[in-house]
Amino acid sequence: MFKLDTKNLFWNLVFILIIGSIVYFVYYSTKKVDYIWRWERIPAYIISKENVEIRAPFEGVLTFENKTIVLKSKDGSKTLRIDDYDDTNLTSNTDVYEGDLVAFKKSYKVGPLTVGLWNTLYISFVSILIAIVIGIVTGLCRISSNVALKKLAVTYVELIRGTPLLVQIFIFYFFIGTVFKLDRITSGIAALAIFAGAYIAEIVRAGIQSIPKGQMEASRSLGMNYFQAMRYVILPQAIKRTLPPMAGQFISLIKDSSLVSVISITDLTKAGREIVSSTFSPFEVWFVVAVMYLVLTSGLSFLVQILERRLAASD
Q1: Same domain, 202 and 291
Q2: Three-state SS string across 90-119, please?
Q3: CATH code where residue 208 lies
Q4: Less CB within 10 Å around the terminal CB: N or C of the chain?
Q5: Where does the ABC transmembrane type-1 domain start and stop, copy by copy (predicted)?
Q6: pLDDT of 95-123, one tens digit each?
């Protein structure tokens, strides 16, 4: 028989009460602010519908065959049939000249916020992939018995973690980008990847060192060399343990990608800033930008949770 868990019910009600209070406080605050809210402007900056003009490519006479527009040149040498249109202001047997407006076709156009969201997603995804490679290699060098590799890895990690990301972006764009002739996107991705790679390296190092040393000894006793033992025994276990901090680092990287706007990359943050400067609607725009970032980070967190469950089930 179903038994009601009164303890959990009470704390669920407490949670709902707290969230409801926060929502009411935000709503009450918006009423107290001397500001005219214009939410109706925002959808056009995400996706909008516009009329595409269809113009006559040559001079001729326009007629209709059912709903098809037929344009024939006066000498009969050219014929144009237009089926894909939504509206026209012309009537049958109308003389048109080259360049005249014949019809309209409605089409959807992505707005600057959508373009910025796509650029943020692209930059973050590529940066994460590169950062994972850098982090794994550097993490292995951190625990290597080779003194040169170990010290190089330590120097890289401490140098990157000890300087602000914004400064690193400027260095990559204005110095390294100039020397190697890198464009803005490449410079931004490189800066983000190297920055995140340093933190991932420490996560990988901690994950590997959390595996008992007996695992490596057992692998070597079975005839595996060091790299085989790392690939087939140590790293698979370490990756499972490092997924939660890795997910946190990936989420931070998505949010940190907003800094590439300082080098004129039209990411989500820069798109929002440009819209604010043209519409003078800062609250609406930044609320929407925040929600878009939240969707990206929540989606990544959800994917990592699925991966964690699958890896746990494979044990």
Answers
A1: yes
A2: CCCCEEECCCCEEEEEEEEEECHHHHHHHH
A3: 1.10.3720.10
A4: N
A5: 117-304
A6: 888 888 888 888 888 889 999 999 999 99
